[in-house]
Amino acid sequence: MIKFNISPFVGKEKEYISTAIDNHAICGDCAFTKRCHEWFKEHMDANLLLTTSGSSALDMAAILANIKPGDEVIMPSYTFVSTANSFALRGATIVFVDIRPDTMNINEELIEDAITEKTVAIVPVHYAGISCEMDKIMEIAKRHNLIVIEDAAQGVMSEYKGKPLGTIGDFGCYSFHATKNYSMGEGGAIIAKDKNDFARAEIVREKGTDRSQFFRGQIDKYQWVDVGSSFLPSDINAAYLYAQLEKADEINENRLHSWELYYSNLKDLSDIELPFIPRECKHNAHMFYIKARDLEERTKLIDFLRANEIDPAFHFVPLHSSKAGKKIGRFHGEDKYTTKESERLVRLPMYYGLKEEEIIYICNKIKEFYRGL
CA–CA separation, 333 vs 30, rounded Å? Predict the structure, then answer.
């Protein structure tokens, strides 16, 4: 069976984890966590803090944005539940907006009509590591005095007009889950553009205390100064991640090669639709998906591939159609593409180290399926 995902492993993870254990430094913010922070500062010029998950990074962003009951937050319905949960937990109403069918990202042209006097934030989700139209979104946010929180869970190493995803809005959130391009098993990170927000992020991440300042020698004792929680990951997890950050370019190039191989082998198959990359976007090959004609055809295709030792997957069920989504959110405008496009999408196996012959085999089986139709 060609697996849908195999978590990245480059060879030094065990060594670095052993080092952390041998040094009796396995809690949060030890040596490997700091190395990861330094890597992102050097490579993305980002003030970043590792967190326990992409979800907790979004939780922190909701706290830092001072989301409160009665507020409204605009986002796409085609996203993972964490995108909405973090703001719902603060009492906000989630306002879902339709997506663009070409990128599966929020339709930037529909955002402004969804804004009310209660709107406080926009949460663009960079699906498949392909950027939303951030210039337009930032322009709308500036005009209406709204906060922009990028859900860049899938976007590490992707760019929009030369800017790393996650660094464009007021806050950016990454995921280093086992399914992501770079993994620490469970983990994430938050970026805060404003220095005051970053200083507060340190406090929120440390259970609402100024403990980080204490360890830097800036204060003689630490105390509870704000709301927060324990959002620090273990340094064991950070050690696993740092091994991959050292090989970040190699991993990225390998995935991009796989993506291009899929594309070149399937581009002449008129029965399916392939991913679209806008000219201003540099993507990270987080996933390769195709779109079947409809839900019935997708189901048959998935069954066919699994019968041939290939493990594909569909993706998000739109949040506005879920039980919780109906209770704590609403869909603004027409659901023209969100449901229809989500029911067509099939994700193909994609991971660091996927073999060329496996990709060619998958493509040949997809062609065989459509010849049979």
Answer: 48
- Side chain identity at residue 145, one-letter code: N
φ, ψ for residue 335 (rounded to 5)? -85, 80
Q: Please check the confidence at residue 333 and state whether its pLDDT lies above 90.
A: yes
Q: How confident is the model over 107-165, as pLDDT tens digits?
A: 999 999 999 999 999 999 999 999 999 999 999 999 999 999 999 999 999 999 999 99
CA distance 51 to 202: 11
Residue type at 79? T
Pairing of strands 119-122, 159-160: unpaired
What domains lie within the chain, and their CATH numbers?
13-245 (3.40.640.10), 248-372 (3.90.1150.10)
Q: 3-state SS of 1-51?
A: CECCCCCCCCCCHHHHHHHHHHCCCCCCCCHHHHHHHHHHHHHHCCCEEEE
For the entire predicted model, the pTM comes to 0.97
Q: Specify the 3-state DSSP secondary structure of 237.
A: helix
Cross-sheet strand order for the sheet of 163-164:
163-164, 159-160, 281-282
Give how far the C-alpha of residue 180 lies from the chain's centroid of Cα atoms, to the nearest Å.
Answer: 8
